[in-house]
Write a structure and sequence with these properties.
The protein is an alpha+beta fold. It has one domain: OB fold (Dihydrolipoamide Acetyltransferase, E2P), CATH 2.40.50. 21% of the residues lie in helices and 40% in strands. The chain has a three-stranded antiparallel beta sheet. It has a two-stranded antiparallel sheet with strand order 1-2. β1 and β2 form a beta hairpin. The chain is globular and about 30 Å long.
Amino acid sequence: MASTWLKYQNNENATVIFNLDHSTHFRHVTAGNESFVEIYADGTMHSILQLTDPKAYEVAMAYIAMTTTYKLD
């Protein structure tokens, strides 16, 4: 089975790649254009900001909806 890897840019212009399949919990904050999702995986909290990396944000939100059956608004 293939792993689900996510590549995103954080607000410090660093590129981060991690395995979404290792996620244990999620936190979503709705703030319009400044919305973000936090993903805890392998002992690290990954914050993906919609404004900084909209594509990665959408991928993360779709992954959460697909794997947990919860759609976050």
